[in-house]
């Protein structure tokens, strides 16, 4: 069964494990595409300290045979983050996003992501199991361009606990650290 992610009704008491097992094998498509921008590729490359010229200038990309700037291999995590956030918020919904822990991720790159690509994300809940009081969730993400050409396939494994909450003081400390880090990256020398 394939479906587009939409808001689900207000949370109701349910057996989370049974719900998760019922979603295994299901396909969920992001409701809109992600258009790859020139400056976004440059910003991402700078953020991950990837100085390769192909990610910053057309001339650098041309040296590799491309007619426009190309994204660094992990750029796909930008779209992947958006897609996974939507999946957990609109489909799964039983976990506090702050309690999700990514424990593994793999990428298979089929084609180079370039400026102007319109990427679509198709997510599949591949597996769910419970281990030592935690839920282990594996999500596959097939990313294609505007022509249906496969670009990247990712598999991400999460560990989570239903009903888990994070100490608000810890959340504030992490938010403050992230805000300071973001502010320091935006300063110009």
Could you provide a short overview of the structure?
This protein has 189 residues and is of the alpha+beta class. The protein has 5 helices and 7 strands, in the order βαββαααββββα. It is globular.
Explain what this protein looks like in three dimensions:
Helices cover 31% and strands 28% of the residues. The longest helix has 19 residues, at 168-186. By secondary structure, the chain is α+β, with helices and mostly antiparallel strands. The chain starts with a strand and ends with a helix. The chain has 5 helices and 7 strands, in the order βαββαααββββα. It has helices spanning 16-23, 38-47, 58-62, 76-92, 168-186; strands spanning 2-4, 27-29, 34-35, 101-109, 118-131, 134-144, 150-160. Strands 1, 2, 3, 4, 5, 6 and 7 form a 7-stranded mixed sheet that branches.
């Amino acid at each position: 069964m394939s479906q587009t992610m939409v808001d689900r009704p207000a949370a109701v008491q349910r057996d989370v494990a049974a719900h998760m097992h019922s979603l295994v094998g299901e396909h969920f498509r992001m409701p809109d595409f992600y258009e790859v921008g020139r400056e976004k590729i440059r910003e991402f490359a700078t953020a991950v300290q990837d100085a390769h010229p192909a990610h910053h200038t057309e001339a650098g990309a041309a040296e590799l045979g491309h007619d426009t700037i190309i994204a660094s291999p992990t750029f796909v995590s930008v779209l992947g983050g958006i897609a996974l956030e939507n999946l957990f918020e609109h489909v799964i919904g039983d976990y506090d996003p702050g309690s999700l822990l990514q424990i593994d991720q793999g990428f298979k790159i089929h084609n180079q992501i370039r400026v102007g690509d319109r990427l679509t994300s198709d997510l599949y809940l591949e597996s769910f199991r419970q281990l030592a009081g935690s839920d282990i969730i594996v999500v596959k993400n097939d990313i294609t361009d505007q022509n249906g050409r496969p670009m990247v396939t990712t598999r991400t494994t999460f560990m989570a606990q239903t009903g888990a909450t994070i100490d608000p003081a810890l959340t504030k400390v992490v938010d403050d650290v992230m805000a300071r880090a973001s502010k320091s990256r935006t300063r110009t020398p």
